[in-house]
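Figure S4 source data
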Amino acid sequence: MRIILATVLSFLFFALYDHFFIPKNPPIETTSLEQNATPTTTTSAPADVKSASSVDIAGAPTSPSKLGETIATIKAAGYEVQIDRLGRIAKFYLEEGKYKDDNGGRFQLIDASQALLPLEIRFSDKAVNEDAFVMSYSADKDTVDVNENGGSIVLTQTLSNVVVTKTITFFPSGRYDLHVKLSTPKEYFISPGFRPSLAVDSYTFHGALIKKADGSIKTIDDGSAKGDEHFANAKIVAGADKYYTTFFYELDKGLESVVSVGKDKDPLLFVKGNDDFKLSGYIGPKEHVKLHAINPELTDVIEYGFFTFISKPLFSLLAFLHGIFGNWGWAIVGMTIIVRLVLYPLTYKGMVSMNKLKELAPKVKELQKKYGDDKQKLNTHMMELYKKNGANPMGGCLPILLQIPVFFAVYRVLQNAIELKGAEWILWVNDLAIKDPYFILPILMGITMFLHQRITPTTFTDPMQEKIMKFLPLIFTFFFVTFPAGLTLYWFTNNLASIVQQFYVNKLFAKKHEEPKVEK
């Protein structure tokens, strides 16, 4: 029981620390790019990268007067982009209804004050680089309307010894194609931009994500950039927070990517270009359907941390059920029931073991009284008692421990799935990504947790542990009041399934005890 209690409390701490002690939407820092400029950085490639031993990325001596000056606006049904005088995406707004704040304002994924903006170019030659951050780009049009076939804009920057031309074609999904041409070959690096900063919490990933040439995923969390990481032929180079992302991708030839160090050791992403350079990019929410429609490989930017290998199949199941029910709330209910059925052999074994231990509890107490002063004899006789009756003191704990990764994976899926944002369930639940407005689900969750606890056999020997367990339903109810409704719905449904299963196991044991009486 100590293991069960410790597991429950650790899960509670894990969830509560994230939810209450880390701000979800910290304001984007307004520090100027000049202060955040990356000094000349030498980034050494790993020994297995033969394409280059080192690269130099010059800093960004941006004049504050350049910030916020827009030369072109791109409008699509789902977003708006503003291009600044340095040929970068300085602002990116989401236009869909569910991506609005409480005041009806649009969500802004890219802000001109960020440390690094999408499409920013930095030249290795310091003189050229300084010139590039002084001379303005010109646009062939000041407004672009994006239709189903896309919308293109041409940006041109004339420097002292090179002309830079960026041709960008935007598509309704948030994808864009980029073609950079230089009149004279110069070594340069271009960035997909710093990660969006709308949804940042303590444990979900936020930082840089690289899908390497071999298909494996490398993540670099904010605050942990080393500044010496180089990835040859990377397929995806992304900056991401919990819900949103900005990235470059080239799934065939790959991209020579470099991770530089920004303020507070945050990773700054660049890819090495050439005088005739093409790639594709994306800015927007990490919606599975949208990314999958562009290319299935792009769904790898949806990262669940250590439990990704379990969480991804669970999300696929959730999405499949949504296709059947047409409702994310019922999909959560269905997923919870299916997970319970898959784990049934483990939970059943654990429940049976707990019932056996409860039956043996009086005999265990007798042994404790008899051999309380001799721990070795006590343990020997207890093991003999368990063996004789086919009971395993760890039998109730191990099945629960084996289920913990699944529970955490479900938790990650429901916390990370942007699909739940603005998704209705029934009646009063209009958004599964935020708290239940009337606290009905948390209260039902607490009641069912209490009921399950009442019918579950226990073998506590420590009164303090027993008191803590009795108060857990109340504690969980109190904290789940502010948890997302989707997560609370999962926990409530899981409790109902646990109650049904526990009743069944208890009934089997009751029937087993009645059989000898009938024979007499």
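Figure S5 source data
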Amino acid sequence: MTSPAGPPPTGGGDEQRRVRLLAVTACPTGIAHTYMAAEKLSQAAESRGIDMKVETQGSIGAENVLDDNDVRQADGVIVAADKDVDLSRFAGKRVLTVGVAEGIRHPERLIERVLSAPVHTGGGAPTAPASGGGKERSAGYRALMNGVSYMIPFVVVGGLLIAISLSLGGHTDPSGGLVIPKDSFWMDVNNIGVIGFTLMVPILSGYIAYAIGDRPALVPGMIGGWIANTGELYDSKAGAGFIGAIVTGFLAGYLVLWIKKVEVPKFVQPIMPIIVIPIVATTALGLFFIYVIGRPISWVFEHLTDWLGGMTGTSAVLLGAILGLMIAFDMGGPVNKTAFLFGAGLIATGNQTVMGMCATAIPVMPLGQGLATLLRRRLYSEQERETGFAALFMGCFGISEGAIPFAAARPAQVIPANMLGGAVAGAIAGVAGVEDAVPHGGPIVAVLGAVSGVPMFFVAVVIGSVVTALTTVALVDVSRRRGAPALAGAGAAVSEPVPVGAGVGGAMESAKSVAGVGSSGEAGEAGEVLSGHLTERTVRVRLEAVDKEAAIREMAGLLARGGRVVDADELVAAALRREEQGTTGLGEEIAIPHAKTDAVSAPVVGFARSDEGVEWDSPDGTKARLVFMIAVPEAAAGDEHLRILSLLSRRLMDAGFRERLLAAPDEAAVVEVLREVG
């Protein structure tokens, strides 16, 4: 078949050969929209006699991955995505980038447009189109979440190893300090943890830059983050910390984007992304930070130290509150270190009360953020709750950096809450005269006997942590109601929440298992399909609800009939939180609300039909008449629910299948139709 009207394809070859197209589909949650867009594009290509291969980048990973041979033979590439997709492998090909909703709504139009799309020159940033389904985040927010998601493992690994080494190998030293014997096994463990913490800040900066400027921005971002965190390079006792890393990440990313726009001779273009851009951007950013940004930072914090020194004779409550605010502000950054070094320096003079104030405030941030994830679990994703547990552990050992992932993801809510709790803890320690004989903080120093006034020390820590937790959940809840982005993880932004830390275990047995056939090959019980997760008891041929929230509540009640729902209200809340991240209305009169929550004891699937249809903010504007609901516990084995969802969404793209579901007279007939899934 010849190519449609437009400039000739870039694939070359015989003009009479079939047109070959590629596509990549991806949505922020990586589930239904991803697979629906893939199915729609495949159907549209087949109807036009066009060969098409579609790569899906879903939560279960990339499937049907495009290889070099596919790209070499392709006449064009359609990228229907609402998240970052690396375009560098498509250099020299016509590339059309749109939102994932366009892949569902107008696949034929995209196929026509891609053959006249501009040729991708390579070296471009990953793409995340402004149009598409679900709530869109700004490019800056996505870049920040990208950095946070890569940083979290370094925070957790580094912090926990340091905490373990201190708890099992550390002791107070008569000369001052909490020490681990240099030649001991635990010092080696501690050193490994320190490496993780050392890499944490450059990783944050580097992957923020990468999300903006692609691979050429990774090196300047990481080196810039290292420079920001290494105060000695610009005569500062304290580096710029994670806040400095955020600054260098954005500076590196946008600097690389600007350099890419500079026109250079053709013979230079091949080496631009691997040599010229990284060297120029790294050198420029590094020198800019050292000479322009770094020295003022050093000057400010030197004078801040002098100012604190002049306050030692003032009210202990005021000094404690100020030190608590500073300790909590940037968690290991320059403000934090200024207060810490001030307190540590006074120990040698015999004044241990200032360090007592600092030591009390140090654990408040990680303890408070960890406590917040326990108090209001529904406000946090699975990854955030796991990070919260790690933060609680780190807080016990005085590792304030455990709260950095929360502060980096949403500084406007978390940092004020941290500062309020830190100020309260510092003020209580000041008025109670708590003393600390070693330059360290957290409950561990009290356990090891370095603190005097231990009861009031713990009172201050507990009150400060509770204040931080309650303030955090209040601010996050308010921002969520106003439509602000949810906390990330992964990566996110993470996030439905990025399923980092999702349960482990075996995956579902392909189509046979989904169709209701057990591993032994025997058919499931009558009335059971989708691996037995859906039964006649969880099917209703008439949905009474007239709006989305009411429909979700009704569907939760329907799932409860299966005997696997332990908390219907929490199931509803979890499903509604998922809707806030992006509609589960898929178009074609379909909605598939879903949730991963301990409100259910085992995976369960329900289905209901609505005669009038329910408004679900679907990409094509249709009301949902076919409503599936999927719920799985947090510890559900493998990615079974994701596989069920992907197979179901693909099957629902068949108009005949949808008609049979709509026409089925009763629950038993619906189950028989659903046996076709697989």
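The CA atoms of residues 172 and 178 lie 5 Å apart. The two ends are 32 Å apart (CA to CA).
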